[in-house]
Amino acid sequence: MTRYLVTSALPYANGPIHFGHVAGVYLPADVYVRTLRMMGEEVLSICGTDEYGVAITLKADQEGTPYPEYVKRWNHEIHSFFDRLHIEFDTFSGTSRCPQHEGTAQDFFRHLGANGYLDKQETTQLYCETDEMFLADRYVGGTCYVCGCEKARGDECPDCGTWIDPLRLIAPVCKQCGNTPVHRTTRHWYLNLPKLRDEHIGAWINDHEWKPNVRAFIQNLLKDVPSRSVTRDLKWGVPVPEDLAEGEEGKRLYVWFDAPIGYISFTKELMAQRGTPDEWQRWWQDPETRLVHFLGKDNIPFHCLVFPSMLWGTQQNYILPWQVPANEFYNLEAGKFSTSEGRTLDLDAFFAKYDPEAVRFYILTTLPETSDSTFSLEQMVLTINSGLAGNLGNLATRVLKFLAKNFDGIIPPIAPEHLDEMDHLMLGDCGEIGDPGIHVREFRFRQAAATLLANSSVGNVFMQRTEPWALRKTDPERAASALNTLCEWIRWVAQWMAPFLPQKAQELWEMLGCQGQVAQEPWPGIPQKGAWRRLEAGARLGTPEALFPRVEGGE
RNA sequence: GGCGAGGUAGCUCAGUCGGUUAGAGCGCAGGCUUCAUAAGCCUGAAGUCGCGGGUUCGAGUCCCGCCCUCGCUACCA
Fold first, then answer.
1. A405 touches strand B (CB under 7 A)
2. CA angle A307, A311, A313 (to 5 degrees)
3. Closest nt to A219 (CA→C1')?
4. Which of residues 214-233 of A touch strand B (CB under 7 A)?
5. Which one of A2, A22, A403, A435 has the fewest beta carbons within 10 angstroms of its own beta carbon?
6. pLDDT per position as a tens digit, A529-549
7. What is this model's ipTM?
């Protein structure tokens, strides 16, 4: 048994998440965790919302909502979206609500400082005296000092493409209040990433085995690593420890610094709730633990370079990531999913029409594993109708309804003299049988989903070949043997389904008359001739119903 | 501007260290079957692997140039 600590990138508590996030991070993480659990591994799954930062204070101020209330709302909103898709975590906390977070983040700051990885630097920034805040680049407008365009932003000029230094803007204005900001110097702490890279992390990255797309992403990153400021002049964030302020009171940790620490503080919180407050160390400081970060490609630099640097730089025996199965981006057919451009789906209407688990499955078959990929309603309808309804769902109903009608709804017996023949046919001649779990372990979720359907298809081929509807009249004993074998097969399919379609797998499990939770069963692997049957002849089947109703349209 | 990704059958995508007639699913065409959710099974058609050069015995796979699409550019996976 191996210990796996699985984290999913913390969603920002500043708006809804969408299928892009789900496909890139949370759904693969969920399938991974469910599969490992069935395989008997020790697994902990951590997530929660990232709740600090400028963007949150701005929007919360705009609508006049206190920050804690504002982020609580989005935390619930996001959590309920996960519930809808049956995506589960062992804990879903938040950086501002987690009691252990502030102390944990401050400890990081303290240790990194004591070990010489934090430097203090003085910079000049634009400051708005009306709003009493330093202005992040995008909140400044002005005239471009290169081309004279009056609509330059603080980061880029839309006309000439110049990368703007906000301090050089002609006639800068604060985008919030319209007043003119002033130059003001401020002192901040910087994380010395070049030093951390040279001492350890650079070599670690080079020696580590990464997913190909991850390696491609970080290769160039190492050449030019900047120090990054880890504090900000903000009102909403983890305060810099007072004893270390050294005349810079009022500073807060910059949100990117404290966010990944949330993985650790949420673990502490969970373990405290379970009454074992020291247990978190087993997860974070035991080299036997495999730390897996699920995230999108934009988060690769943080989780492959910055956060490992922080973990190592504390010299507190933290483990470093074992794998970072980052995905690319998932696009809506007409363009990017974007909350800011209103390119979202009406979720209530959507889920009224499409089964959440069917949607789960479609997304899994199109995950952006190797490159950006596309969500298409039309394709989804095809996948649901052909793959889930026609292949998998129909296999169950054609067998179980036939049994209900002709065999009194009980599992028919298999004649001993048919065992070899039936095993040979089902396990050898009806198509290739794969273990979806192997692909899940290797983060190939599309292949895993395809393998599940291929296995289901084997059952359909078997039924086609044995023709129990004809045998029933000519050789009822053989018909019974074939149907018995099909029931066994459906039982295996239900188990293979469980990580991908948890609720549907359970429904199928019950249709077979099986007891308990299918997710509690050990992972089935691949059936071996003569040793794969578990059902008892004569057992009563449940009520067969269509698992996946066909859906219309695609508009 | 910089960085990155991608352009392979009608559609969505695989193609590991360069190696025999380029793959899958869906869609499409033809046939078979009737237990089942107008579902199932079998067979088939379909690609000058963005364009032009180069390296090589051999390139979708490496190198150079060009065209096109898209993402990021420090608060959206």
1. yes
2. 110
3. B4
4. 216-217, 220, 226, 228
5. A2
6. 999 999 999 999 999 999 999
7. 0.88
